[in-house]
Amino acid sequence: xxxxxxxxxxxxxxxxxxxxxxxxxxxxxxxxxxxxxxxxxxxxxxxxxxxxxxxxxxxxxxxxxxxxxxxxxxxxxxxxxxxxxxxxxxxxxxxxxxxxxxxxxxxxxxxxxxxxxxxxxxxxxxxxxxxxxxxxxxxxxxxxxxxxxxxxxxxxxxxxxxxxxxxxxxxxxxxxxxxxxxxxxxxxxxxxxxxxxxxxxxxxxxxxxxxxxxxxxxxxxxxxxxxxxxxxxxxxxxxxxxxxxxxxxxxxxxxxxxxxxxxxxxxxxxxxxxxxxxxxxxxxxxxxxxxxxxxxxxxxxxxxxxxxxxxxxxxxxxxxxxxxxxxxxxxxxxxxxxxxxxxxxxxxxxxxxxxxxxxxxxxxxxxxx
Length: 369
Known about the structure:
Elements (H helix, E strand, L loop, with lengths): L7 E3 L1 H13 L2 E2 L1 E7 L18 E6 L2 E6 L4 E8 L6 E10 L4 E12 L10 E8 L9 E2 L5 E3 H86 L22 H15 L4 H16 L7 H5 L6 H5 L1 H8 L3 H11 L10 E3 L9 E3 L2 E3 L1
């Protein structure tokens, strides 16, 4: 070794284990890579060593590369992260799975800056082993990490470089698209705010118009209710507009789809959005009672869209609420009523007028009859 300044030797334990691996066709598992500072100065490694002179760092082997197949040269690598360091590497060694030192290398002084030095960086350390195999067996180093030829590593590196270039182009395109998206989102938000304001204004205007329609309809409803009550009494119909509307309630669930649920929830919000949950159930019950009555249409849509029956439909507010979706409590009330939780046996309701309305059942701001 006198003619070579820096070199790698196999320890006696390493020589024996390699010979055994060759003879019996076994694999020698190189698992760990260690660095040392030589105790402060360089020295000549000895094959009798069982450890580095002064170890400063140890980690698992990163990978093993068949560097030159013609002479059975293996390149063993270990990556040391930037936050490790603060010492000078003068010796390296590799250990097998049993913890035995297999090979030791003398290196030139190689400072490894640590965290906080201002020069910290990731460093890959390499140790080469040449194994002469004169037997019939084949020596293999397999530390259960990637083993590849130098050519394969180079090909992989070139592929990686290509992919990195493509990723860089994609990143630039993504950044451009991100800027375009920000502009689009800003415009969309502005349009949405404008649209929301327009919807709110339209709903308020519809509500004002609806109040006028409601006043006109009250007189007509009272006359219709009285006529219906007389007809029902003559026919013995339990769904009359007079009497106890909390008894003889038909709680049979009716068949419905998502459209029926959305329409019923919307009319409940229009008529009782500011009422208690009991008031919401009562409005929904009126609609379902009408579906079950022979005097009205036999569907949710038929009842709601019947001419002159619900002022929110006439004013256009029902359409606005239906488009944006009713509140969660109104949807829940609609679903309960459709599933059979009909709470009153009434076919009509309107805003209660104290001192004028002396019939029916008052729930919140409405009277049901």
